[in-house]
Design brief:
This protein is of the alpha/beta class. The protein has 2 domains: 24-123, Translation factors (Elongation Factor Tu (Ef-tu), domain 3, Beta Barrel); 127-299, Rossmann fold, CATH 3.40.50. It has helices at residues 2-23, 92-100, 146-162, 184-199, 217-225, 248-258, 272-284; strands at 27-35, 39-46, 56-60, 70-73, 83-88, 118-123, 135-141, 170-177, 206-212, 242-243, 263-270, 294-301. The strands form 3 sheets. It has a 6-stranded parallel sheet, with helices on both faces. Helix 3 (146-162) runs parallel beside helix 4.
Length: 302
């Protein structure tokens, strides 16, 4: 038995040593941004840190807990000179980090007062393959929208600097959430991207749909009253917020009709139930003919 145990144990020990070494490297918090509804953004720098879109890191804050590591998706783009994460305050550890960063105080915090942070990663995800397709469907549910912040930022940087070498030509983005106010920072990113694409006369590059799944009758009435306004009253975007859940069969058939003979990447960050639905739709709407349209499903579950 020992012959079968020694090899895996040696590899596991090596992996733990590498992770321990990486976690000891110095991390500098360059900025802490407080967003609405108790969401904070940590912008950090670390020597030799290299990332791709949609990746995630493990974070430890010894001032809060010396043993706990928590995974967070990177919301910055590889083209930026820092890396960032967005943290929503929903538990004891995140509350402790919120207080350790001085976010509970009104006065300006000096950089040297910020807590020490240990970072392990980054680690890869399916979202890294976004730029391998000409057409993609990005589906984010709730906090699962965070990896697509990195993707959309990177698309904007690539588009601004050298759009001719960008293989990706069309993005269909779907955001399903109970309350957009919890992620106003992401709506701001969409606003910026929307404005930049209009300035470059390529507003069709990004097609997005925001679905509020936790709506009630009063919200629906308010929505009808303001539907004719130029910008959405909830997000401030030109694309109006929709209520309920998308009809995925219609969405897939529409996209398949607009891109015949294409390989379309479908990327999800969301719950397992939604993953099953999108996987079935990807299979049923892909043609048997190799020259026909094919949906390639990629997922990250939480």
């Amino acid at each position: 038995t020992w012959k079968w145990v020694v090899g895996p144990m040696f590899l596991y020990l090596c992996e733990r040593l590498v992770r321990f070494w990486r976690s000891q490297q110095k991390v500098v918090i360059t900025k802490v941004v407080i967003h609405p509804f108790k969401t904070i953004e940590l912008q950090m720098m670390k020597k030799g840190f290299k990332m791709e879109v949609g990746q995630y890191i493990f974070v430890k804050c010894p001032a809060v807990s010396k043993l706990e590591w928590h995974p967070f998706t990177l919301t910055s783009a590889p083209e930026e000179d820092y890396f960032s994460i967005h943290i929503r305050i929903v538990g004891d550890w995140t509350e402790g980090l919120f207080n350790a960063c001085g976010c509970d105080k009104q006065e300006f915090q000096e950089a040297w007062k910020l807590p020490k942070i240990a970072v392990d990663g980054p680690f890869g995800t399916a979202s890294e393959d976004v730029f391998s397709y000409e057409t993609v469907m990005l589906v984010g549910a709730g906090i699962g929208v965070t990896p697509f912040a990195s993707v959309l930022k990177s698309v904007w940087y690539k588009y601004c600097h050298d759009a001719t070498n960008l293989k990706l030509k069309k993005i269909y983005f779907y955001w399903l959430c109970r309350d957009t106010h919890a992620f106003e920072w992401f709506a701001d990113l969409l606003q910026s991207l929307e404005a930049q694409m209009q300035e470059r006369n390529n507003a069709e590059f990004l097609s997005y749909n925001i679905y509020l799944t936790g709506w009630d009758e009063s919200q629906a009435t308010h929505f009808v009253m303001h539907h004719e306004e130029e910008k959405d009253v909830i997000t401030g975007l030109k694309q109006k917020t929709l209520y309920g859940r998308p009809n995925w069969e219609n969405e897939f058939k529409t996209i398949a009709g607009q891109h015949p003979g294409s390989r379309i990447g479908v990327f999800l960050c969301g719950p397992e139930g939604l993953a099953d639905t999108l996987n079935k739709q990807s299979i049923s709407n892909s043609e048997a003919d190799p020259r026909g349209v094919h949906f390639i499903f990629n997922k990250e579950n939480f």
